[in-house]
From TrEMBL:
<dbReference type="InterPro" id="IPR041640">
    <property type="entry name" value="Tyrosinase_C"/>
</dbReference>
<keyword id="KW-0470">Melanin biosynthesis</keyword>
<keyword id="KW-0503">Monooxygenase</keyword>
<feature type="region of interest" description="Disordered">
    <location>
        <begin position="345"/>
        <end position="364"/>
    </location>
</feature>
<keyword id="KW-0186">Copper</keyword>
<feature type="region of interest" description="Disordered">
    <location>
        <begin position="472"/>
        <end position="495"/>
    </location>
</feature>
<dbReference type="GO" id="GO:0004503">
    <property type="term" value="F:tyrosinase activity"/>
</dbReference>
<keyword id="KW-0479">Metal-binding</keyword>
<keyword id="KW-0732">Signal</keyword>
<dbReference type="GO" id="GO:0042438">
    <property type="term" value="P:melanin biosynthetic process"/>
</dbReference>
<dbReference type="InterPro" id="IPR002227">
    <property type="entry name" value="Tyrosinase_Cu-bd"/>
</dbReference>
<dbReference type="GO" id="GO:0046872">
    <property type="term" value="F:metal ion binding"/>
</dbReference>
<dbReference type="Pfam" id="PF18132">
    <property type="entry name" value="Tyrosinase_C"/>
</dbReference>
<feature type="domain" description="Tyrosinase copper-binding">
    <location>
        <begin position="234"/>
        <end position="245"/>
    </location>
</feature>
<dbReference type="InterPro" id="IPR008922">
    <property type="entry name" value="Di-copper_centre_dom_sf"/>
</dbReference>
<keyword id="KW-0560">Oxidoreductase</keyword>
<comment type="similarity">
    <text>Belongs to the tyrosinase family.</text>
</comment>
Length: 495
């Protein structure tokens, strides 16, 4: 629940430093340009690699606007240093577009109005986007072609050496820019980032676990993304969290009657907020709504409120402002299957069958699927940390635990089917699978610097092998179905 609430905050902005203390009422509305006045349809955020490959005016403006935002004096409340807001980025792009003259002027004006921050779809392609690794980028500026420092590569602190002591963070406190998996000399080790991304295994059952894995994979144990006190300064942070926002929006479209935040829970004090009950109506300070009240999780539920959408939510035939929720859910399931199932899909306009008889007659045979469920109370181990899951000495997945929040039970589920099939096991044979896992399944818990943590030092740690009946999807507009879970607790020290 903490992650979902914080992710909704990221829908509004990426960073806020001391805004509330200054009592400055900055109303978060999102960019309201480029919206179709007849239908209300908003421009879509684009995947960063696709945007880079496509290029053109909207890319030129994005690069220049981000560079200009990073150059704003750090004492300014709307600077990159203090608050990397989507509406602020677009305002810079609009100002830049006014500098283009001649035939270029109209297309750059229109592109600026439609510009939205990009996202990095690490769920589809778990590799670091090439564009964030380049030192420079070529753009068509108002004065013609030019090469500029790549603002997606890093952020350079303006007041370095630091005149204010923010926090002691080792190498992060001694470098003038954000870094990713730095070597001993503070130079980015891009190869290490790629290796981490390839081995992170993002097939889990929650938003939190892959979110945490990306932070750790991009930062390693000493990079900017790894330390949550610093992570928002890395330009990858916004791309990463925009994708998390996208995944939540996709989930909401598929399950329109469900809520991501539907309970009241007690939360410890965090970032100046006192401990107490938290619900979907708890004010998300210091983010002001358009009417001057504070945003809540409920007020930010609909992303169209903030003037943007995502490609997966854009029905190709959506000419009207109203879109039937069932039609949208069908379309989004199709897009999700296309992106993430690893199987081809057909973009036929035919709707999925609705009758129960039709569904049953077309239902494919079911099979078993295996996974391991992990849960632990974060207060029981030094943070940040990771729980690695190995089968026959091969890493099959990991659960990353970030430093914040420092308490609370974290859950993750790691699939085992690929490892079991690689060992030529019949997934339907429960005895063979469980006996194999008793011998070959093991877990390693480590601190961020690689120091081992004894598994038996965490009383709350629960490791459960589980199987379910799995029925493949019947059509491209449906998801697979799962039966009840059969649990096979894994004994610590016995696997």
């Amino acid at each position: 629940m903490r992650l979902l609430a914080s992710s909704l905050l990221i829908t509004l902005t990426c960073r806020a430093v001391d805004v509330a203390a200054r009592q400055t009422e900055i109303r978060v509305t999102g960019p309201l340009t480029g919206i179709n006045m007849q239908t209300g349809a908003a421009p879509a955020r684009m995947e960063i690699s696709n945007m880079y490959a496509q290029g053109g005016p909207i890319w030129d403006l994005y690069v220049q606007a981000l560079a200009e935002l990073q150059a704003v004096d750090e004492s300014n409340e709307l600077s990159y240093f203090q608050i990397m807001g989507a509406q602020t980025l677009v305002s810079h792009a609009l100002n830049i577009s006014l500098r283009y003259l001649g035939d270029d002027a109209p297309v750059y004006r229109t592109s600026a109005e439609k510009l939205r921050v990009a996202y990095w779809d690490w769920a589809s392609n778990a590799t670091l986007p090439e564009v964030v690794t380049l030192d420079t980028l070529d753009v068509n500026s108002p004065t013609g072609p030019m090469t500029i420092r790549n603002p997606f590569h890093s952020y350079h602190f303006q007041n370095f050496p630091f005149t204010i002591r923010y926090m002691d963070a080792g190498i992060l406190s001694t470098t003038d820019h954000t870094i990713r998996c730095p070597d001993a000399g503070g130079v980015d080790d891009v190869a290490a980032v790629f290796q981490n991304m390839e081995t992170a295994h993002y097939q889990t059952s929650s938003f939190e676990s892959p979110h945490n894995n990306v932070h750790n994979s991009v930062g390693c144990s000493n990079g900017t993304m790894y330390d949550l006190n610093w992570s928002a300064f890395d330009p990858v942070f916004m791309l990463h969290h925009a994708n998390l926002d996208r995944l939540i929006a996709v989930w909401q479209a598929i399950y329109p009657d469900s809520k991501v935040f539907n309970i009241t829970d007690f939360e410890d004090a965090l970032y100046g907020t006192a401990a107490g009950n938290v619900s979907a109506d708890t004010p998300l300070k210091p983010f002001y709504n358009q009417d001057g009240s504070f945003h809540t999780s409920n007020s930010v539920r609909n992303i169209s409120t903030f003037g943007y959408t995502y490609p997966e939510l854009q029905l190709s035939n959506a000419e009207n402002a109203y879109v039937d929720p069932d039609d949208l859910a069908d379309f989004v399931r199709l897009k999700v299957n296309s992106l993430y199932s690893g199987e081809p899909v057909s973009y036929s306009t035919a709707r999925r069958p609705r009758s129960k008889r039709s569904l049953q007659s077309r239902r494919p045979p079911s099979r078993k699927t295996w996974s391991v469920a992990i849960s632990v109370e974060k207060a029981e181990l030094p943070l940040p940390a990771t729980v690695g899951c190995y089968v026959d000495n091969s890493l099959v997945g990991k659960m990353a635990l970030l430093a914040v929040p420092a308490t609370g039970i974290t859950h993750s589920t790691i699939p085992l089917d690929a490892a079991l099939l690689a060992a030529s096991l019949d997934l339907a044979c429960e005895d063979d699978v469980t006996q194999y896992l008793d011998q070959k399944l093991r877990f390693e818990v480590q601190q961020g610097d690689g120091t081992p943590i004894q598994i038996n030092s965490m009383p709350s740690l629960e490791l459960v092998v589980q199987d379910q009946d799995f029925t493949p999807r019947q059509s491209d507009r449906e998801f697979p179905t799962y039966g009840p879970t059969n649990r096979h607790p894994w004994k610590v020290g016995g696997g």
